[in-house]
Automatic annotation (TrEMBL):
<dbReference type="GO" id="GO:0003677">
    <property type="term" value="F:DNA binding"/>
</dbReference>
<dbReference type="InterPro" id="IPR036162">
    <property type="entry name" value="Resolvase-like_N_sf"/>
</dbReference>
<protein>
    <submittedName>
        <fullName>Recombinase family protein</fullName>
    </submittedName>
</protein>
<dbReference type="GO" id="GO:0000150">
    <property type="term" value="F:DNA strand exchange activity"/>
</dbReference>
<keyword id="KW-0233">DNA recombination</keyword>
<dbReference type="InterPro" id="IPR050639">
    <property type="entry name" value="SSR_resolvase"/>
</dbReference>
<keyword id="KW-0238">DNA-binding</keyword>
<dbReference type="Pfam" id="PF00239">
    <property type="entry name" value="Resolvase"/>
</dbReference>
<dbReference type="InterPro" id="IPR006119">
    <property type="entry name" value="Resolv_N"/>
</dbReference>
<feature type="domain" description="Resolvase/invertase-type recombinase catalytic">
    <location>
        <begin position="1"/>
        <end position="139"/>
    </location>
</feature>
Amino acid sequence: MKFGYTRISTRDKQVDDLQRRALVEVGVGEDHIYSDQVSGSKKASTRPGWSDLEVRLRPSDELVVWRIDRIGRSMIDVITTVNDLIERNVVIRSLSDGIDPSTREGQLMLNLIATFAEYERGLIRERVQGGVDAAKARGVKLGRPAADPDELARKVRTVQHLVTNEEQTVADAARMVGWSRATYYRHHKAVGSETTQDFTG
């Protein structure tokens, strides 16, 4: 299936008509053209027209645009969006830029876009890891907060009470305090010095 996408930053009908005519001339049906009249500062994923189009695209579908910058708000946004489509096996064709996957030049451009996208992801990972390392160096504790020992002991005693006095199985009693059977036994072992009862049920 062949789809088209247009975007204009103002309500300039002539510009939109120009893009639409170009798409229709290469075989895109009018009912398969999606449009947005929004500022270029908005990411592709936040535009209503693009969002409607994106959920309809399937592997091997072809997306035709008048110019590749119609897709994103910035080069990084364009690269990320195009690479996501490539990974979904959506064929991308940009009329004014000469990006045509059936040509060597077009394949080269798409490969470069994919390479830049991977490079950007690598930079993001490095920045995130750098932030984590800096936080650790400042003594910031990351991850899930440590459980309150008193709360753990209370839940262990509750499970023991339910098993001993209410004739509940360990699995059912543990579930009542938000644990699995295995979680109960793990915490029972950790606080065993305070709660000496054990169960095998």
